[in-house]
Amino acid sequence: MRAKDLPAPVWSAVDAADVVIHAGDWVSVDLLDALEARARRLVGVFGNNDGAALRARLPEVARVELGGVRFAVVHETGAATGREKRCARAYPDVDVLVFGHSHIPWDTTADTGLRLLNPGSPTDRRRQPTFTWMTVDVADGTVRDVELHHLDRR
């Protein structure tokens, strides 16, 4: 079952954030419109569950520099096995790669220093015990803190 709206704690996090990053599977243009209206800045990409209207408004890969940290955002990175090496080759000029698709939280670092982050999902937890999202604090070219937030129910 897909959510019709984001949980209140996620909206509070959106309101507090300088930048909101969404790694795809919006499913509804309404969510994109709502986040664009409410977020100070929004960086997003389309996912495999996103139709033509969303694909017309969002890129497959987004790149942005925030606080001196180079981010790329993409929905799909392939199988978990070999992900760090594969992504380090595909994104050699990036410090942090945010990805989605699996809805499984992920926080690892490739041998090259590339940090890979998947926030999971605040609306579709699949086989995970909780709904999740991440906050990341960056400044002066450094990722200072990554926090995975959990919500038992929507």
UniProtKB/TrEMBL annotation:
Coiled coil: none annotated. It is an enzyme of class 3 (hydrolase). Keywords: Metal-binding. Residues 7-140 form the Calcineurin-like phosphoesterase domain. Its EC number is 3.1.4.-. Its cofactor is a divalent metal cation. One of its GO terms (molecular function) is hydrolase activity. SUPFAM superfamilies: Metallo-dependent phosphatases. Belongs to the metallophosphoesterase superfamily. YfcE family. This is Phosphoesterase.
